[in-house]
């Protein structure tokens, strides 16, 4: 009887812990989005150039690469509870650095350092939440697991959109430094709640034998897909990080509220499409029609026509508001579908004996694309405005499509005993 009771209690504990981890992740996601808007608009008000604005987020993206590379190994060695607590604690430090600093300290190097910490915190917390979902789904129920991951994907992006709006609201109502201290208090509340309510010494089972060298992939399909992922996410961030918000604020004439609301709506809509796409992919798989390299390629080539079309419209003096706002909404829908197919393919191509390591390598490539897009977003906008950002975006998507043509024409066969979806990437 005692054994049976313990068996019942363990799933309940896992579910309770996962709910706490997910709540903390949602809080950190909102804070991350709000902090991005606060920093961007505050320093734009101070007269920073587009390139200077981009450099503020340079270390944020760079340390995303580093964290994604080593984070899986750290979690394997020390457990997910350790990485979760580290992520939340570092996020509090990052926001406090901005909130308590004298105004004279708020210069580019100092803000870059705080954003580096924020990038580390975001990826540690994200990795903990995505990995913890494995604890609550019974063995062999990959369909249920895929559904849980899809919900996590959509909710994450929706809440990041809410964070964008929250950042604009805080800047307008309470100002920059008070706003970031509010964000720090939100994360501190999440950290205290998880510390008090989480049960068990560890979240998951630490493996002292996990080796860092296993993070690097020798799988050709995984490496090609990672290369395509770099170009795909660079194509988004090359206009989204700096070019679009500065354009809407300085050229179209929107205020902080309007820009934040549009970016929030874009991210939320992106999350809805991305959450729906995995279910569509799964239905296709059950019918024997799994997407493959060709699917990723043609989606990329379709996507490339959208930023090119918007750039042509702007060059032809079409209405900038309609061209950009409507065009980039359509871009977001197709981009989300493309991203979802990539997420399916990484699971299909990953080596059965080291799925998590292959996916960690893939995430590193994802972060590398964001880093390249962030830097180029400021440089290109300062050079030739949003039109240049859009043309480069189109070129990047074409590059992703060409790389996708080199992927296997059919998805790798997975035996029923392999729990590949347990490493489903969420971006």
Task: Describe the protein in words.
- It is globular, with a radius of gyration of 21 Å.
- The protein has helices spanning 2-45, 50-56, 58-78, 80-99, 108-132, 142-173, 176-197, 220-240, 243-252, 256-286, 293-315, 320-349, 355-404.
- It has two domains: 1-199, Growth Hormone, Chain: A; 215-412, Up-down Bundle (Growth Hormone, Chain: A).
- Helices cover 79% and strands 0% of the residues.
- The longest helix is centred in the last third of the chain and has 50 residues, at 355-404.
- The protein is mostly helical.
Summarize the model shown.
With 427 residues, this protein is mostly helical. The chain is 79% helix and 0% strand.
Keywords:
Growth Hormone, Chain: A, disordered N terminus, 2 domains, globular, 427 residues, mainly alpha, disordered C terminus, 13 helices
Mean pLDDT, as a whole number? 80
Gross morphology is globular
H/I helix tally: 13
Radius of gyration: 21 Å
* Overall tally of domains: 2
**Could you estimate the helical fraction of the residues in percent?**
over 70%
Major sheet: size, sense and barrel closure? none
Low-confidence parts: 1-9, 412-427
Q: SSE order in H/E notation?
A: HHHHHHHHHHHHH
Question: What would you call the structural class?
Answer: mainly alpha
Number of strands: 0
């Amino acid at each position: 009887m005692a054994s049976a009771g313990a068996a019942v209690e363990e799933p309940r504990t896992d579910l309770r812990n996962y709910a706490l981890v997910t709540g903390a992740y949602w809080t950190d996601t909102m804070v991350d989005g709000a902090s991005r808007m606060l920093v961007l608009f505050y320093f734009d008000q101070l007269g920073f150039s587009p390139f200077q604005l981009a450099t503020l987020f340079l270390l944020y993206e760079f340390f995303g690469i580093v964290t994604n590379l080593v984070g899986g190994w750290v979690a394997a060695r020390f457990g997910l509870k350790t990485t979760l607590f580290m992520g939340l604690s570092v996020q509090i430090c990052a926001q406090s650095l901005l909130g308590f600093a004298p105004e004279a300290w708020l210069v580019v190097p100092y803000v870059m350092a705080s954003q580096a910490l924020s990038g580390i915190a975001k990826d540690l917390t994200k990795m903990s939440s995505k990995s913890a979902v494995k604890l609550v789904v019974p063995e062999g129920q990959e369909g249920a697991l895929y559904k849980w991951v899809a919900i996590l994907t959509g909710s994450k992006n929706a809440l990041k959109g809410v964070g964008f709006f929250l950042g604009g609201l805080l800047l307008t109502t309470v100002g920059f430094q008070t706003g970031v201290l509010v964000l720090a208090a939100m994360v501190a509340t999440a950290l205290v709640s998880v510390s008090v309510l989480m049960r068990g010494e560890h979240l998951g089972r630490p493996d002292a034998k996990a080796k860092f060298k296993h993070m690097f992939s020798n799988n050709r399909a995984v490496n090609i897909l990672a290369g395509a992922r770099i170009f795909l996410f660079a194509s988004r961030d090359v206009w989204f990080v700096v070019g679009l918000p500065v354009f809407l604020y300085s050229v179209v004439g929107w205020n902080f509220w309007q820009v934040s609301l549009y970016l929030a709506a874009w991210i939320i809509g992106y999350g809805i499409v991305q959450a729906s796409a995995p279910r569509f992919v799964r239905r296709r798989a059950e019918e024997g029609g799994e997407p493959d390299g060709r699917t990723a390629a043609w989606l990329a080539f379709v996507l490339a026509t959208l930023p090119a079309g918007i750039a042509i419209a702007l060059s032809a003096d079409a209405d900038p508001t309609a061209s950009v706002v409507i065009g980039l909404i359509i871009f977001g829908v197709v981009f989300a579908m493309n991203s979802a197919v990539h997420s399916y393919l990484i699971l299909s191509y990953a080596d059965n004996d080291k799925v998590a390591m292959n996916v960690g390598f893939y995430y590193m490539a994802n972060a590398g694309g964001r880093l390249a897009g962030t830097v180029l977003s400021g440089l290109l906008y300062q050079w030739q405005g949003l039109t240049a950002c859009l043309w480069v975006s189109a070129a990047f998507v074409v590059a992703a499509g060409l790389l996708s043509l080199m992927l296997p024409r059919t998805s790798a066969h997975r035996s029923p005993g392999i729990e590949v979806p347990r490493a489903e990437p969420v971006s």
